[in-house]
Amino acid sequence: MRLHLLLLLATAMAMAATAPADAYNITKILSAHPEFSTFNHYLSLTHLASDVNRRLTVTVLALDNSAMSSLLDRHLSLPTLRNVLALHCLVDYYGAKKLHQLTSGTALTSSLFQATGAAPGTTGFVNITDRRGGHVTFSAEDTAADDADDGTTTTASASSSFVKSVKEIPYNLSIVQISAALSSPEAEAPAAAPAPVNLTAAMSRHGCGLFAGLLLAASPDVLDAYESNLDTGLTVFCPVDAAVRAFGPKFGRLKPDERATLLLYHAEAAYNSMQQLKTGSGLSTTLATAAAAAKKKKSKDFTFTVGEDGGGVKLETEVATAKILKTVVDQEPVAVYSINKVLQPRELFKPPEAGAPAGSAAAAAAAAAADSPDGAPDDDKAADDNAADGRLGGGCVWAVAAAAAAVAVML
Ligand SMILES: *[C@@H]1O[C@H](CO)[C@@H](O)[C@H](O)[C@H]1NC(C)=O
Ligand SMILES: *[C@@H]1O[C@H](CO)[C@@H](O)[C@H](O)[C@H]1NC(C)=O
Ligand SMILES: *[C@@H]1O[C@H](CO)[C@@H](O)[C@H](O)[C@H]1NC(C)=O
Ligand SMILES: *[C@@H]1O[C@H](CO)[C@@H](O)[C@H](O)[C@H]1NC(C)=O
Predict the structure, then answer these.
(1) Is residue 184, in this structure, part of any structural domain at all?
(2) How far is 104 from 95, CA to CA, in rounded Å?
(3) What's 158's domain CATH number?
(4) Which of 226, 299, 310, 357 is 20 to 30 A from 56 (CA-CA)?
(5) How far is the CA of 293 from the centre of ligand 2 (A)?
(6) 356 lies in which domain range?
């Protein structure tokens, strides 16, 4: 009971702390200030920019290009650099005025490094002190003892100073320039890259076990193609089990390489948040687009159209329209959404009477007929002379998928 309450509370707090739609775009704001271009570049590269954008209240301690170049000279790995930069994102609002009017002249404030849970103890907190003569300093809280014996610029005692206010949107976003990078041994400790998303496991947990099974069974290796985008950006639309089941007969009639293509068609080589899908309406290229291009099949573009739909998101091909049901994974640079229908590219699914002149009433009727029978596999059975062969192969894949789903359920 108590655990439930805590969970509820945690959820409520998480919701309060993040805006439903991003209120501002730190990347865009900083792009108007070329002296912060390196800092801006690394905010994006480490995906901290979107973490900042999701906050209702945040203060970014920006470093100019020369301060960034000193930081980069330390050759930190990207996950470590992310921790260091996260230390520069305070989860409270500090405009220039507030910085110079701190109650009792000092404040301890939490950073995104602290918020990620990667910071042990009080590390991840930043000490702000308003010194004599309006000189404001920032330093990372540090559990390690001061050690100034190594002859180099020491980190523990070094603090960074307020330079100027860059942008203030009271009381949501403040960007202030500080003179040098904050440092703490904890933030600079070698950081492991976050555990990679296990796509098939996540899908299986969210009602897409059959689709996960198809990915595992596909040849050539589709899962491999998906996973090769895990670091650089991937959005997957996985049809729920009921949709895959209803689509079974059609899938069964595809050749193995067409099945692989269909599965590739359900992923994009870029990260898209739900918000981006809603607002960035337009044509989406897919992993199948890339595969077709690699084979120089220029006529086959394997795209679909994404658009907002009554507060949700719809995915339209010329053959069918699917809707997003829920978010399965949103862990930039990877997003997975479940959808209510299998996406059908026009490159693979045509009206059976392909010979009819395009645009004729017969073609339209045929298209309509081909469009509807997802739930009526018996209509399809008679339509295809390859049915027996296709169905057999499909059946095998189906068995594998079912087994995979069963395993997933047991886990
Ligand atoms: C600013 O923050 C407040 C809460 O602190 C929030 O209610 C408001 O929506 C935010 N404004 C914007 C533009 O995000
Ligand atoms: C933020 O702005 C940058 C640069 O203007 C743009 O490339 C990016 O897509 C924007 N991000 C969002 C989430 O709108
Ligand atoms: C911040 O550090 C100074 C020493 O530099 C210390 O006097 C002050 O108490 C600290 N502030 C807080 C809130 O811990
Ligand atoms: C993903 O999870 C499944 C179990 O659901 C497991 O069999 C598989 O090895 C995992 N893959 C990776 C790459 O960890």
Answers:
(1) yes
(2) 17
(3) 2.30.180.10
(4) 310
(5) 27
(6) 199-410
Q: How far is the CA of 201 from the centre of ligand 4 (A)?
A: 6
CB of 200 shorter than 6 A to ligand 4: yes
The count of structural domains within the chain is: 2
Pick out the chain residues at pLDDT < 70: 1-22, 143-158, 281, 298, 351-411
Coil, helix or strand for 281? coil
pLDDT tens, 104-155? 899 999 999 988 777 777 788 999 999 988 899 999 987 544 444 443 333 3
User: At 271, which amino acid appears?
Assistant: Y
Q: Look up residue 188 and give its two tokens.
A: 């600079």
pLDDT at 372: 40
**pLDDT tens for each residue of 189-221:** 888 777 789 999 999 999 999 999 999 999 889
pTM value? Answer: 0.62
Give domain status of residue 386, yes or no.
yes
**Domain identity same for 404 and 320:** yes
In degrees and rounded to multiples of 5, residue 18 shows phi and psi of -120, 140
Angstrom distance (rounded) from CA 13 to CA 211? 34
Task: Output the CA 157–ligand 3 centroid distance in Å.
Answer: 12
